[in-house]
Amino acid sequence: MNFFGTDGIRGEYGTTLTTQTAYSLGKSLALIGGDCPIVVIGSDTRTSSPKLFSALASGVHHGGGNVINLGVLPTNAVGHFTRKFGGDFGVMITASHNPPCDNGLKVFDTYGVKVCVAKQCVISDAMSVVTAKYSSKKVFEPVFYDIENIYVDDVLSAAGVSDCNGLAVALDLCYGATCKVAPAALEKVGAKVTAFCSKADGKRVNVDCGATNPQFLQSRMRGNALGFAFDGDGDRLAVFEGQTLLSGSKVFYALAKYLHQNGRLKRNVAVGTVLTNGGVERALKGLGVKLLRSDVGDRNVFDVMVKCGAVFGGEDSGHYLLTELATSADALLNALILTKIYSEKGSLIAYTEECEEIPHIAQSLPITEENAKLIGEKQLAATTARISALYPECRTVIRKSGTENKLRIYLEGENVSDSQKEILATFCR
Hints:
By secondary structure, the chain is α/β, with parallel strands linked by helices. The protein has 14 helices and 17 strands.
């Protein structure tokens, strides 16, 4: 049994994800990690995160390992410090952009990279044979001293931002993992920060705010030059210039263009996903940059980046990977670099004006007994072929979400319209 989905082990806390799952993972990592392995653990602010931490840490200890507790920090901090401290594994306790009732376990290898499929299978096999039960005894592990300031300094050094000259920046911190470090980083380089949802509150994380609900920050952007909305674990980013929300396509293009212009886009290649809009590909081609595509998920983007030697990739959801600066998507790092671009170029909107999206529609359908027969690989391919035959001028992508129990449908073409949504839904029932 493989416990891993698109991005770690994830589910509703207490039902599909339990303290026993966390305990089994911790013990398995310790057992396969060699002699007295070190597991670096961070978490977001969800109310279930401390319980999962205790179970995870107990498992590590019972397997003969040791724990470094980072406390509440963004996901990339776990990969960053696993590599920096010489840990054997890292685990981030988070369900990312999912609602507060969910939680998850993202696992990193000793290089600070999310574990590959082969290592996922090894870990899953080890978890399957753990028979010991978690005793529910709370584990006390002190948070590594001054870790938040260390992370802020490391991210600022990587981003290369020195002085924002009083730039007005609004932040939606989503009651999540970036509550302390994001305002601290931007204030440290001279930005005038207005922060919303800035209290660590696991009951409200991602609720009507954050990167997946950008309308919240949009209505509060008056008087601010830039705005950044984070998700619960700080790996996803929504970007505003004034009250204008930049599409994921524009943000992707801005980062790729800036790296290219500064001679830092190796091989003149950027990696997107099957959902990256064709307008991005067209604009990048105008720069002499080739777009490669992966399956959805930053783990898949990373795999293609490694294979082709690329240093930049991302997906429309707001994950952007700059692998010479971070081992996974870091919304704080990306926000700082976009702030730098804005300071140098004057406007992100003007800087990306040649990147125009091809019309598209995206739809999510809950997976029910009625359409569950469609989610197999062959069935999805057959449904995609039927829709492609119906709309041969369009690019069609149908897939099962790796983080939610939903079917995702994407149709892109110059003549696509919202009227086709119902037709797509009918085909996928």
